[in-house]
Amino acid sequence: MISPMTRYSFILLNGEQDGLLEQLQELGLVDITRSARPVDEKSRRLMSDVELLDGLIKGIRAADIPEGTAVQPLLGGDSLSDAAGDILMKYTETGDALLAAEKQLAALRPWGDYSRETLGKLAAAGVPVHFHRLSAKQFKPEWAGEYALSVIAEDRGNVCFAVAGDDALPGEIAMPAQTLAEAESEAAALRERKALLAGHVLALRERLPELEALRADALSGLDLYLAGASAAKAAGDRIVTLEGFAPVADEAAITARLDEIGVLYLKEAARAEENPPISFRNNAFVRLFEPLTDMYGRPAYNGFDPTPFISVFFMLFFAFCMGDCGYGLILMAIGLVMGRSAGMKSLSPLVTVLGGATVVIGFLFHTFFSMDIAQWSLFAPIRGIFLPSKIMGYDGTMVLALLVGVFHICLAMVVKTCNETRNKGFANSLGTWGWTLLVVGGVIVGGIAFAGVLSAAVTKWVVIVLGVVSAVGIFLLNDLHRNPLLNIGSGLWETYNTVTGLLGDVLSYLRLYALGLAGSMLGLAFNKIGLMILGDGSAYAMWIPFVLVVVIGHTLNIAMCALGAFVHPLRLNFLEFFKNSGYEAAGRRFNPLTKNNNK
Question: How far is 506 from 508, CA to CA, in rounded Å?
């Protein structure tokens, strides 16, 4: 849910704002309204420092260091950031120079070593030596009888040869600028230099925490400066005012610190028109899915937090698309392994949860590595809990996908109605209430009638009443401040858009069935190919290719299924649910002024 915010207005004498901002930065609870981009030369310089340290940290981590490289201590004198920049630049330049030298060395090897002094003497005596390279098909052996020609080497389908004296043979190349010995010496020196620099890079990796601390300090300094630069001046620049927001839950701690400082401030409940920052207050499970909400954008202050809905339905849709109990176990194992890696630790709980959901849904779909476990005698006593293969004569998974889609859209419409009623009032939301009553009420009545609870006659009258009441809201009361004729025209247009839109939205959920089916069929194909190779199993040598086909095939299938299971459930939440719930990503993330900032 969205945390309610308190708005703080600070009034200070010009020059006192820096001390207040430092105190607030120490507190780390108040989001001071400030620019997210540099506003002057100093802030641009501070931003440049942050970007430089960012680049150094990424470069040190990404540097390709050969195994077995020994750590070389850094030389004193320069600052750590200057030393890191110099070493990374030299390491990159040396690596590029070594690649060029090795390429040159490969080109010289076919010619072997030779004396440039001797070649010079021959040229001075009127017997120049020419170097040639031709493909074996173009080279003619009879040239050896016509010219003073010597074949030096045959290299990758090419013939390298030299001709003394004047000649007009094709394929002549310039005399190599280096001898083989000179090129080998240069390459060896570059290798030695690169190994030394690689040791220095390893030393830098050991000091990454120091660089990260420098980056955090630089970012905190930039944040502090931008906050100070946002101060509004008044009374001939003698007074400055600052604005900030903080969650209501932190109000006691903030006011206690402000009273201790002795600063003049005003506080009031934040209003939506002030565009306060958005901070979420969710439980540990829902917090796992907040990054997905941030991918789309945070809600407006008077909107609603979609993360609780995303957490349930994204997890369900992901498991639906994977649809295999075995694949879920693999994902859970991957998630647990990720938890041991510092760089992937934050994603570990989410991957593990999605894997667990896939295990549950895959079990209900009675699929284990594309095998139907409902046919196994082990599960004979509990076959009743498995999803039936047919529902009302149609594929059970397909029907379930559509039912889930209908429920998801109905929930979105209910959320939209509640949020609009809260913001606009009941009287100004009658059009939305009409559509929700018609669609959601119609689905509920249809379900009850299908279950046989209501007779056909009662159902008919309930539907008529629903239709009439909904029509009044949709066509006559959708805007109480507008001409009724305009309301009717607006209602007709909205009816067209809603009816055609809802049909397309519901059909979009068939992708859950299609993706699950595609993954299952592809996995089954790999199983059958493996069994065809294995035969009756009597040839032990066939077990190796059988295992390779099954393992590699299912590995590829898991990767493709996971990609589709991430993208398409995200689409169903971002498009179908957000559209029908009226969600707008108009908010900004809560960004308190803090020290040791690692944003």
Answer: 5
Does 495 fall in a domain? yes
Give the 3-state secondary structure of residue 455: coil
Say how far apart CA 221 and CA 240 lie, in whole Å.
20
Determine contact, residues 21/278, Cβ cutoff 8 Å.
no
Prediction pTM value: 0.77
First to last CA, the chain: 22
Per-residue model confidence (pLDDT) at position 492: 86
Task: State the residue range of the domain holding 500.
Answer: 398-508
User: How many folded domains does the chain comprise?
Assistant: 4
Residue 307 has pLDDT above 90, yes or no: yes
Say what percent of the chain tops pLDDT 90.
28
Rg of the chain taking only CA atoms, in angstroms: 36
**CA 469 to CA 477: how far, in whole Å?**
11
Q: Please report where in the chains the tokens 């476990």 appear, as a residue.
A: 373
Q: How far apart are CA 351 and CA 591, in angstroms?
A: 27
Alpha helices in 63-164, H assignment, sequence order? 80-108, 116-124, 143-146
β-pair partners for 12: 240
Residue 125 and residue 99 share a domain: no
For residue 38, pLDDT beyond 80: no
Q: So what's the pLDDT on residue 145?
A: 81
- Which of 211, 232, 257 delimits the end of a domain? 211
Q: What phi, psi does 240 have (nearest 5°)?
A: -125, 150
Do residues 488 and 346 share a domain?
A: no
Q: What is the pLDDT of residues 477-530, one digit of tens each?
A: 777 778 778 878 887 888 888 888 888 889 999 999 999 999 999 999 999 998
The Cα-based distances of 215 to 40, 47, 85, 595, 596 in angstroms read 20, 10, 14, 11, 8
pLDDT in tens, 50-74: 888 888 888 888 888 888 888 888 7
116-124: which pairs have CB atoms within 8 A and are 24 or more residues apart? Answer: 116/179, 119/175, 122/164
- Residue 159 makes CB contacts below 8 A (sequence gap 6+) with 133, 134, 135, 136, 139, 151, 153
Determine, yes or no, domain membership for 564.
Answer: yes
* Residue 76 sits in the same domain as residue 136: no
